[in-house]
Amino acid sequence: MIREKITNFLATYCYSPKTSKLLMGLIQAMLKSNPIETLNYLLPQTYECIEKILSQSNMIILNDHKGDSELTWHLIMFSELVCARGDTLIIYKSMILSIFHQCIQIIHKDSYESIGKAAQNLLKSLTYTWGQYVEYDKINVQFHVPNEEEVDFACEFVETFMYLELQILNEKCTDISNDERLRLLTLIHHIAIGCLRMVSRIESKEVKNFVSSVSSHSSKVQAQYSLYAKEPKFKENLRMRLLIDIGNFIDHLIAYHSDDASSIKIALKIYSLSSMYYGIFEQNINKLFSDLNTIKHLYKNKLYNTQQHPRFFIIQRIAIQIEVIDFC
């Protein structure tokens, strides 16, 4: 009953981006506890609202720098809904792709940032292994490995939208405005963050006497696991494509648009992503431990000063150890 009231509340009102963080927390909680019902109620409604707004404006709203607060809100909600488990998103594939096809070119900053975040969240949901819920007092975590449908969906999404944005960037690099340049790079950056986990390393000669800052995927002492039910396949190595295209674009930016600091900053982030492979940085491990300690204090019984839910902490520690020995 409470869940029903919350979903009705979220589906029937429009909120400003300033209040979205609080409300998105409600959506994330519902997706964790009951993703199937939450998606079944909220995603079709969100899709219909976006369709209605675009239809009423004859798609003109996509080219309005001022944007539309109602559309922006629904795009923010959409970006959170695609955080659901990948296997629960498959049945909404056509609906999800339709939203991206219609809104990927929107020029309002808050709106295209929401679309970019949605792309990143979707790819993460489709390609990450996650632990399934089990009995409270039993430490027998079962992991879901992305199935073939999830992998195919992720690859199709990348092939469709990443190459589209790269093509526009390459063909119109001398003609586009600073705002359009920033929009393109923002979308490419979000998609790259979401998908490069699936893309194999760039083949190159081994560097001798090289001290790595991360745990190498090919390390003899590291356990290696299959992350997917099938190997993701792309028409080319996307890491190399990004290195070439974004590298050339950075040269162009520095030569002709050196005042566009925002675009240069994001372009450099994309360029560096291409060379990040497997492993995890020391500072990330430290942050995981810090977060765990914070959570431990929250779960401490103030009357008896004893920790509750020990299984939760054990699983958190297991997750940290997996990050240390597994993929980044």
In brief:
The protein is mainly alpha-helical. It is 62% helix and 2% strand.
Descriptive report:
Helix 2 runs antiparallel to helix 3 (35-56), helix 4 (69-81) runs parallel beside helix 7 and helix 8 (148-171) runs antiparallel to helix 9. The chain is built from 13 helices and two strands, in the order H-H-H-H-H-H-H-E-E-H-H-H-H-H-H. It has a two-stranded antiparallel sheet with strand order 1-2. With 328 residues, it is mainly alpha-helical. Helix content is 62%, strand content 2%. It has helices spanning 2-12, 17-33, 35-56, 69-81, 86-89, 93-103, 109-127, 148-171, 178-195, 238-256, 261-273, 282-298, 310-325; strands at 130-132, 142-144. The chain has two domains: 2-135 and 144-197 and 228-277, Leucine-rich Repeat Variant, CATH 1.25.10; 283-325, no CATH class. The radius of gyration is 21 Å and the shape is globular.
Descriptive keywords:
62% helix; mainly alpha; two-stranded antiparallel ribbon; single chain; Leucine-rich Repeat Variant; 13 helices; globular; 2 domains; 328 residues
Overall geometry comes to: globular
By CATH reckoning, the class of the largest domain would read Mainly Alpha
Q: Detail the poorly predicted runs.
A: 214-225
Question: How many domain regions?
Answer: 2
Rg from C-alpha positions? 21 Å
Pattern of helices and strands = HHHHHHHEEHHHHHH
**What CATH architecture label of the largest domain applies?**
Alpha Horseshoe
Terminal CA distance reads 39 Å
The CATH topology annotation of the largest domain reads as: Leucine-rich Repeat Variant
Number of strands: 2
As laid out across the biggest beta sheet, the strand order is 1-2
Question: Largest sheet, described in full?
Answer: 2 strands, antiparallel
Structural class: mainly alpha
What percentage of the residues does DSSP assign to strands (E)? under 5%
Helicity, in percent? Answer: 55-70%
**Average of the residue pLDDT scores:** 80
Supply the number of helical segments. 13
